Amino acid sequence: MMIIMKAEATEAEIQAVVDRIESVGAKAHPSRGAEVCVIGAIGDREHVARLDLEAHAGVDSVVPILKPYKLASWQLAHERSTLQFAGRKVGGDHFTMIAGPCTVETRDQVLTTARIVRDAGGAFYRGGAYKPRTSPYAFQGLGQEGLRLLAEAKAETGLPIVTELMDARDLEPVLEVADVIQVGARNMQNYPLLAEIGRSNRPTLIKRGLTATLEELLMAAEYVLKEGNENVMLCERGIRTFETAYRFTLDLMAVPVLKELTHLPIIVDPSHAAGRRDLVGPLSLAAAAVGADGIIVEIHPEPDEAICDGPQALRADEFAAYAERVEQAAALAGKVVSAPA
Amino acid sequence: MMIIMKAEATEAEIQAVVDRIESVGAKAHPSRGAEVCVIGAIGDREHVARLDLEAHAGVDSVVPILKPYKLASWQLAHERSTLQFAGRKVGGDHFTMIAGPCTVETRDQVLTTARIVRDAGGAFYRGGAYKPRTSPYAFQGLGQEGLRLLAEAKAETGLPIVTELMDARDLEPVLEVADVIQVGARNMQNYPLLAEIGRSNRPTLIKRGLTATLEELLMAAEYVLKEGNENVMLCERGIRTFETAYRFTLDLMAVPVLKELTHLPIIVDPSHAAGRRDLVGPLSLAAAAVGADGIIVEIHPEPDEAICDGPQALRADEFAAYAERVEQAAALAGKVVSAPA
Amino acid sequence: MMIIMKAEATEAEIQAVVDRIESVGAKAHPSRGAEVCVIGAIGDREHVARLDLEAHAGVDSVVPILKPYKLASWQLAHERSTLQFAGRKVGGDHFTMIAGPCTVETRDQVLTTARIVRDAGGAFYRGGAYKPRTSPYAFQGLGQEGLRLLAEAKAETGLPIVTELMDARDLEPVLEVADVIQVGARNMQNYPLLAEIGRSNRPTLIKRGLTATLEELLMAAEYVLKEGNENVMLCERGIRTFETAYRFTLDLMAVPVLKELTHLPIIVDPSHAAGRRDLVGPLSLAAAAVGADGIIVEIHPEPDEAICDGPQALRADEFAAYAERVEQAAALAGKVVSAPA
Amino acid sequence: MMIIMKAEATEAEIQAVVDRIESVGAKAHPSRGAEVCVIGAIGDREHVARLDLEAHAGVDSVVPILKPYKLASWQLAHERSTLQFAGRKVGGDHFTMIAGPCTVETRDQVLTTARIVRDAGGAFYRGGAYKPRTSPYAFQGLGQEGLRLLAEAKAETGLPIVTELMDARDLEPVLEVADVIQVGARNMQNYPLLAEIGRSNRPTLIKRGLTATLEELLMAAEYVLKEGNENVMLCERGIRTFETAYRFTLDLMAVPVLKELTHLPIIVDPSHAAGRRDLVGPLSLAAAAVGADGIIVEIHPEPDEAICDGPQALRADEFAAYAERVEQAAALAGKVVSAPA
């Protein structure tokens, strides 16, 4: 950590900062320039982080040198991780297609869509049984009945299941069917939930919060990793900006930057960012071309009849053609499609 | 709801939208202008909201007419609510000072600070036993031991307690001491937690998420109100913007706008927005002058030794003078200081 | 324009709005729902826009129905425009590669880079003679001497030139060499400059302001189009968000959305958004895959020696391989590379 | 400047950075920690700034130590400046009220409003003759005829005039009437315009761009100061955020933070931020209470008939009462109202 002192800081103020650093067992290295003094603090990361020196007299700013995440950092692996679970490989050179409806609605809808995903070579089937809804008056998902339908789709198609967990008290039933537990954007900083998923040791896909920095996303992953759960996927799904012409702004720059910061796979969700079907195709091509490790996309047999988020769902009967084009874009970025084992 | 059709929409597309609206039992009123057709949809709010017409062929945009919140809306009360609980009045003409340390650390710290808050005429004592921390390696709060210390402070000073609940599984012990349950910014859209607090019927203070719109904040309140819990306070604590010179941007414009949209009291937290002690004074004056119903502020007997967020804590021995100035600003906005019963 | 009245608006307030609308010669159509009244205002676009009804008693909000831009709107052309100038076609099915150094520095640098762009099949050569710099102490460009070097590059390679105009007083010398006048992001709302370029009738490329909405960008184009200048290209170059891990957030979602709103070609600048060379490749692939009509990219023979923005410049000797990959991505989006006439 | 190397940076990469720093005559001080190496670069500010080391192999990030502005910095003066011009004092302990219509419309409107401002003790009269409008079809101001009316108001009331300059080519006529030249938010980074105003030596008020950081605002001021013009006022007028319930988000936190960074006076414009008359009162109280050096506010004799921005204009006949309340809030922040000489 570097502490940059104000130009007008006195010797006594500099010494007070040095003393404070050394009081927690770290070492302080002041270096006096012509205009300002900069103090390096070296020692145990957590001790130093706790110093909270920003408000000390004479301090201009505090610059962290080390990243606050460890297990998620690229330096840990020195290469991009290839996760293996449920007979699939995710990350590394692999490109993973995850598809299914936003919300589990009916047996027919779930089974029809799952067969389409399987036939088009999709790697995972997604569907929500618990739905975080902005309005308490909106449909909140089928809950355990929805989980049962997902289990049936898995039994029939062999596709591993991705489904969201919103409440740690629902962990047990979710574990019975989920091969991957999804953490929604609104829960990205729900730390008790993240720790519980970490302890469950079930693979997880963490969606970036609407306004989360990449560092905060990596810290969310760290909560899971710290419990010994290594199978963490990150998911960019659009951030909030001033633009009102679309629901969220898909931040594709996050993909190559995350690939430099972390070894974890990075999946892109074009459906929630866009909120409109016609944007999903172009954004998916772009996500694949920018180097994403996979796509999670919403499809529906009859989007106009969907209970939730119909306008953003691709038509299921167009999914195979869509998937083929996206995989061509992934190939341009050096990826191979992750074929089921 | 108004559906604005594209200029090039065909008659068949207009008719399809009309049919879709009427298929859920609502009424459609198309009105054809020289350049575009606008269709009004009138009917049960939830039915219409579920129409998801944005992706229908020929639709340019969909404009909601009714607010999605009901119990939180100003129209419900037609005046600003004065909440009464724990011997206090909050909202209406009252100005409420809530103060205490960020985190409960030691018995001495808690009791010392509580006495200072009481002596300066503060209305509530705040302190965190469960702390949401970005890093899994950071101090996570004293938990139940912290709650015990808060109970002791309450017994000694008579001050009602505001403390955060992060995990619905901790509700029971929190209910034993909390007069007001705080919902942190990162949990503003943790809907199971909000509903549980609603059912508990304990007063709550909901902090605005870092990037939550006012409408989303009011929908979070609606989750609590819907369960029959009427004692909901909203809290502005800074939003995330592009500016890097400070931690968050305190959005004081939210205060008068919320007062128009909702009857619920609006509290301002200048400490977390600023992250720096020297800004807390000016921002508190501004918050009171803009018409806030109260302030929630962090104080510490020895900020430089605080475990958490020390740099933003006011020095406890300066609290009485601070409170007096803030109350003068509140008086300018037409408020009277809420004296304990 | 629709005026949504508050639920508690009185008949007299509704009538006052109706009267105000009719006072400017427009027609008012109030429609009273069970909960609120909505008033449609129909008439000459500018008259109605000038009504400024937001602050009238009883008004909740005002929703524009018509887009404020006309000449830039998709409806004007009912197909995407293919611009033709300087022996090039831009827009429609064409993909246009524009490349060159950020800043004109030396004769050798300009000529070397121009030859590389020509040999790799680039369509235009870009280079800045006037540079908008945040700091008044930074290098501000070679000015007219820089324009002279660009003219030399054009004479030798036959490449048409894209160069920035910052000050209307420099229009004349810029017109002597520029085939396309670039308007920088910071000047996107410099209306006198835009109108002057409109009157000059020289093709222009307008960069989106750091925080400009798509509507504002289209209104900037409208300033040029209104003067009779039809050759306007729009350029997405990154917007400002809360993320600090990169300089700007490249908003690729703007590309398909703009293609729906306007007939004008949309170019993407990956260099300024990223600020780092290693991100330029992935972002360029993504921009081409999302359907951009072209790329404007910075290259430099020796980026480490560049006077300005060296870190984001591609190495000139890697440009041909880069261009080939980007064009493959453009082909995926259905584009053909715009070959010089 | 500190260069933070990546954990995996090699000795050769460290040495290359050291060599690059020393190649421009600066000194490099590498300090190797257990995990990373940090290199301090000390030397002439502009030389070092030009190094552009972010893209060098092995570099993680570059942290500037010195502020890029000099003449605007607090360190220059070591106290807050009190500017004196046109018989007024601005800054320091003084609170300055600037008021008038958004746009000059008619002789009657200008003279009526000017008398009201004078009678209520306002310090300056504001009014726009050149108006930056998003739409090329909107009223663009009366231009020179508007300047003439402002001159008449000045002659009658003795109030010094604040008016906007949009185009350097209009400098001469503006200088004939303006005591303070206003630079609008959209022109904050119009560097040729700023430099021209600097050379004119006329006092100026620079509005913060919609998305400008405080550092960029101070760099805009630096462009004026560098030409020897010391009378620069900064103006916060709302920034762009994700919130759609209001036009802009007034960033009052900028006021105390700017007071720490710069000696220049800071004025707040509540009218443009809010866009709605009913918010102007509360925001003005807050701006005064947070410590602003003044307010610039829009008033109109008949806001409903205003050509431009009527909804945000205070009614002129309520101005005196408004000004009195705002000055009470300013007094709370330790200010005295700046009485004309």
- Average pLDDT taken over every residue of chain A: 92
Low-confidence stretches of chain A: none
- Helix coverage percent of residues of chain A? 25-40%
Per DSSP E runs of 2 or more residues, the count of β-strands of chain A stands at: 16
Assembly type of the chains comes to homotetramer
Secondary-structure element string of chain A: EHEEHEHEEEHEHEHEHEHEHEHHEEHE
Supply the helix-strand structural class of chain A. alpha/beta
How many strands, what sense, and barrel or not for the largest sheet of chain A? 8 strands, parallel, barrel
Number of helices of chain A: 12
Strand order of the largest sheet of chain A: 7-8-9-10-11-12-13-14
Question: End-to-end span of chain A in angstroms?
Answer: 46 Å
CA-atom Rg of chain A in angstroms: 23 Å
Most extensive protein-chain contact, per-chain counts: A-B, 52 and 52 residues
Percent of sequence in beta strands of chain A: 15-25%
Approximate shape of chain A: elongated
